Amino acid sequence: MVQRKHSVELKLLHGVQGREYAQPVVAARREPKAPPDLSPAARKVWNHTVAEIRDMGLLAAADLYEIAAYAKTVALADQLHAEIAKATTLVWINPATGVPHPHPLIASYDHALARSHALAKALGLNPYARTLIHGRTPMRGDTEGEHVGDLYSA
Length: 154
Prior knowledge:
Elements: H1 8-14, H2 40-56, H3 64-86, E1 91-93, E2 100-102, H4 104-123, H5 127-132
Antiparallel strand pairs: 1-2
């Protein structure tokens, strides 16, 4: 009698031994497409971010809105920084009261930077966030840590 071969998906579903199937089933990853409303500055950030996440092997279509928000926030922070850099002074004195105030765009710039750092952390784009991704090992070892002995060993 001829034995029927079952698909890998069925074997995984019914729980078979690891030796019975050659390779694990991996869902196909689709890359997100850039939204058409991105500015040219945000498009540059989008391209750079998508390339980084693709190199990490973590890019998926579900990341569309998170990457778009990150790209727009970084572009906004850059635009605010350029406006602040054009200012002749960063202190504004209220003519009615004589009280000095910081440049009005500084608070907006600070908020945009904080938001962009939070989004970068969510996307795994900074060193601390990459350590939080389970199953990820750094491609290169810590250059200083490789040459320092274990301080707690006897």
